[in-house]
Amino acid sequence: MLRHRVTRRLRHLMRDRLPLLPAGTLVVVRALPPAANAPSRDLGSDLDAALRKLRVAQPGGPVAGSR
């Protein structure tokens, strides 16, 4: 059940970020075991960093709409 909890948290975090992605973008998020104990703020920061690294978000700044 822990895996499902992490999935729900990541899905919620990605919901705010999806409109910022180019149309037709496919995203796969893979959570490693430490994500189960990570605060949502850290998970969101990791998602923002990954999106910047993929160049789908502005470099050096947070993804718009992130908390």
What does this entry look like structurally?
This protein is mostly helical. Helix content is 45%, strand content 0%. The protein contains two helices and no strands. The relative contact order is 0.20.
Strand content: under 5%
The profile of the biggest β sheet is: none
Structural class from helices and strands?
A: mainly alpha
What is the ordering of alpha helices and beta strands?
Answer: HH
Shape: globular
Total of helices: 2
Average pLDDT value?
Answer: 83
First and last CA, distance: 26 Å
Helix content estimate: 40-55%
Care to count the β-strands? 0
Pick out the low-confidence regions. none
CA-atom Rg in angstroms = 12 Å
Secondary-structure map:
Elements: H1 2-17, H2 40-53
Keywords:
0% strand, globular
Give a nutshell description of this structure:
The chain has about 70 residues and is an all-alpha fold. The protein has helices at about 1-15, 40-55.
